[in-house]
Write a structure and sequence with these properties.
Layout lengths: L7 H10 L14 H4 L13 H7 L21 E3 L21 E8 L9 H10 L2 E8 L3 H9 L7 E5 L7 H8 L4 H4 L8 H4 L3 H5 L2 E2 L2 E2 L1 E5 L6 E6 H7 L7 H11 L7 E3 L3 H7 L12 E4 L2 E4 L4 H15 L5 H5 L8 H5 L3 E7 L1 H10 L8 E3 L12 E2 L4 E7 L5 H14 L6 H8 L6 E4 L2 E4 L1 H6 L13 E3 L4 H15 L2 E2 L21 H9 L5 H30 L5
Parallel strand pairs: 1-18, 2-3, 2-4, 9-12, 14-19
Antiparallel strand pairs: 4-15, 5-6, 7-15, 8-12, 8-13, 10-11, 16-17
Helix pairs in contact: 12-13, 21-22
């Protein structure tokens, strides 16, 4: 196994691609005027850019390892060379931990390893901190999280994914967790060089209630849902990669042969959203933007309706695989049927570019998956909307002593080490010989590595978004270059990067739209049903929520660029 992109959703999909599970992404930036500079008062809102600057850590780029492909247009950095263990750099020359004990509650997908395993022991020795894990089932983590944060027994560190920041969780974060500003704001972060190298945008996402409270898992802001396609079949059949919505539909009709059990694609709704320039649906705050001086939500736009209408055309034309047509759960694991050639294109997280390649390498040597560039629906350049630059966070208990906080930061300084360092290999692969071996410059986990080295320490903090696949360097190169090309068309909407806590009364306002979208594109609902739902959204609170966001915008300014 090799490391995947350290993006927000991508990191989560990375966990999924290592036989752990999938989940859905969401998240939440900063209105000091709305939540106040203390833990009291209203906890709705965000922190102004002006006030955020006083809280953010100084950015000091790491010079320990130079990437083969530098970041461009918001992309991840890339590494394409083989791994030489003898040439690994050291980014943490001395232990910063003071030998204390730290308990961490974190979501876990799969079966947690036994306490005291060789990986945990090696990491704790490297860091100088005794980390004790309280791993919880990632699929039901929101329930456990709510119960723990409502109690008086909160662990030293709690990991909170953005998609779990619903209901009362954001307020609990403000009330239960420590201000890390005295240890990290400004030049203070220089005591922890790997944390200083985390991009500023990711740190801005860690401001809750006017304080720097979180440790981030950074990601590229380029949308990471890629139309993945069977390049080998395209080349064999002479298919051209489409450059418009009409071309895609024409190709889909040509490629589909139901009698031969071949269809063009799965549900292409997310590609449609990108192609038609629909505002981001990955997080509620990103779905707002100014249009002609007025805030508009994504579901109110013509682009949203046009994207759904085009997706419906694919279903109506019979070019969508029956699994997706019927909404079968098997469509959620597209690997086997994609490998069998039953469909040629599907949209999924960028990490599957590598994982599908690795799966098929031995048994299907002709198989080649590649990422299709997002096309503008009319054949021109697309307009893509940035996702947030971090979506998983670790928080420290407000009651923790200074020694515990510094030990937690010592842990984070190791887990945020860049690719190509001893600390990165220890965090992501464990102990050489026990958890992984290296042959021809390619690290491979052992059976024990696949048991012990799972999603634990990586949840505390991570380095800047990185693509590195020494077993398939062409895939890593392709992923980064795809992000760079798409990044050139990626814009930031009004509330990009802001950690926003909406008033609880609006939390579930738009929850039913995803199901409505799926019903519409499959022909089970009419366009009038979608338009009626938008109208009801406005009357049931959408217009008032617009006013609330407008106040944030007036007081804090726009992040759009």
């Amino acid at each position: 196994m090799t490391p995947n992109a350290a993006s927000g959703p991508s990191r989560r999909k990375f966990l999924a691609s290592t036989a752990v599970a999938t989940a859905a992404v969401a998240g939440g930036m900063p209105l000091l005027s709305a939540c106040g500079g203390s833990d009291g008062g209203s906890r709705d809102g965000t922190t102004s850019a002006k006030d955020a600057k006083k809280l953010l850590p100084a950015y000091v780029a790491s010079n320990v390892v130079a990437p083969d492909i530098p970041s461009k247009n918001g992309s991840a950095i890339g590494f394409t060379s083989k791994l030489d263990l003898a040439d690994l750099k050291t980014s943490v020359p001395e232990k910063l931990g003071k030998g204390g004990r730290v308990t961490v509650m974190s979501p876990f997908w799969g079966s947690p390893p036994k306490d005291g395993n060789a990986y945990y022991k090696a990491m704790n020795d490297l860091i100088g901190v005794d980390v004790t894990w309280q791993n919880q089932d990632g699929n039901t983590y929101d329930q456990k999280l709510g119960a723990v944060l409502a109690s008086s027994e909160v662990p030293d560190v709690v990991v909170v994914p953005g998609w779990n920041m619903t209901g009362k969780i954001p307020s609990a974060i403000i009330g239960k967790f420590a201000d890390l500003g005295p240890y990290l704001s400004g030049d203070a972060v220089k005591d922890f060089p790997n944390l200083a190298a985390i991009p500023t945008d990711a740190w801005q996402r860690c401001i809750f209630g006017g304080k720097l409270r979180g440790l981030p898992m950074p990601s590229s802001y380029v949308p990471n849902n890629v139309p993945l396609y069977r390049q080998d079949i395209f080349e064999k059949e002479g298919y051209e990669v489409p450059t418009s919505a009409d071309e895609f539909l024409a190709l889909a009709k040509e490629a589909t042969n139901a009698r031969a059990r071949r269809w063009a694609c799965l549900d292409m709704k997310w590609t449609a959203f990108y192609s038609f320039g629909v505002l981001s649906g990955e997080e509620k705050s990103l779905g707002w933007n100014e249009v002609d001086g007025k805030l508009v939500y994504r579901i109110e736009t013509d682009e949203y309706l046009e994207a759904l209408e085009w997706t419906r055309k694919l279903f109506a034309a019979g070019v969508v695989h029956p699994d997706a047509e019927l909404g079968k759960s098997s469509a959620q694991d597209p690997g086997p049927k994609f490998a069998a050639g039953e469909f040629l294109v599907y949209n999924q997280d960028i990490s599957q570019w590598w994982s599908r390649t690795a799966e098929q390498a031995a048994q299907n040597p002709e198989f080649k998956i590649w990422g299709m560039d997002i096309f503008g629906h009319d054949g021109g350049a697309p307009t893509l909307w940035a996702k947030n630059p971090a979506s998983i966070f670790a928080f420290v208990n407000k009651k923790a002593s200074e020694s515990v906080i510094r030990d937690v930061l010592a842990v984070a300084n190791v887990t945020a080490a860049p690719y190509g360092t001893k600390e990165y290999m220890a965090t992501n692969y464990g102990v050489e010989g026990t958890h992984y071996t290296v042959k021809d410059g390619v690290p491979t986990k052992t059976d024990q590595g696949n048991i012990d080295v799972m999603n634990a320490y990586v949840m505390i903090a991570s380095p800047a978004a990185t693509m590195a696949h020494p077993d398939y360097p062409e895939v890593g190169k392709g992923q980064v270059e795809w992000q760079q090309r798409m990044g050139a068309f990626t814009r930031k909407s009004a509330f990009y990067g802001m950690q926003i806590t909406e008033p609880a009364r609006y939390t579930n306002l738009s929850n039913d739209f995803e199901q409505l979208e799926d019903d519409f594109v499959r022909g089970r609902k009419k366009m009038s049903d979608v338009q009626q739902a938008v109208s009801e959204w406005r009357s049931k609170g959408g217009d008032k929520l617009r006013d609330w966001y407008q106040k944030l915008l007036d007081e804090n300014g726009s992040a759009a660029s």
